[in-house]
Amino acid sequence: MLFGAFMSSLVYGLVVGTFSMGAQLWVAPLKITGGLFVTAAICLPSLYIFACVSGSRAGLRELGGLLAGLLMLMTLLLIGFAPVAWLFSQSTQSLAWMGALHLVFWFIATCFGLRFLAEGFSHSQARSKAGLHTWVVIFVLVAVQMTAALRPIIGTAGSFLPAEKKFFVTYWGDCLKTDSAATH
To answer: What predicted TM-score, i.e. pTM, was given to this entire model?
Structure first.
């Protein structure tokens, strides 16, 4: 599953890179794949802790398998969205529009992946799902912060990674301001 998620995220990243072309054809796949797998690695320990606190009988291996399934389902759905993303990347110059489109695709894919994880978690005999729900919030926050930590994923920059630190809301707001100023 991890290999499939790895390959699928590389392919989707290549499609994301077609918006800016050039170096983004290799930078975007690397950042998307790396960001996704780093997010999973960062969040796996807290998933295990919340599962234990919830009374789950699932071990680290089972939870890792569920997380791998989440990644696989997410990236397969992103591959399904890739032709649409490519079409828009070839027909618009709006960075904000493309960012929003990819976020919508990511959100839909993540919802399905999280539903898979929750279904698997329900078989772990946990007494409560509160820990899982808390973990979902953490996972989503870490994933969206990765978009700021690895910026730019869609546009171009002079360096591979940003020099300054930004919270994802600030970064997204800056992107909207820049795009709005460019169209006026």
So the answer is: 0.89
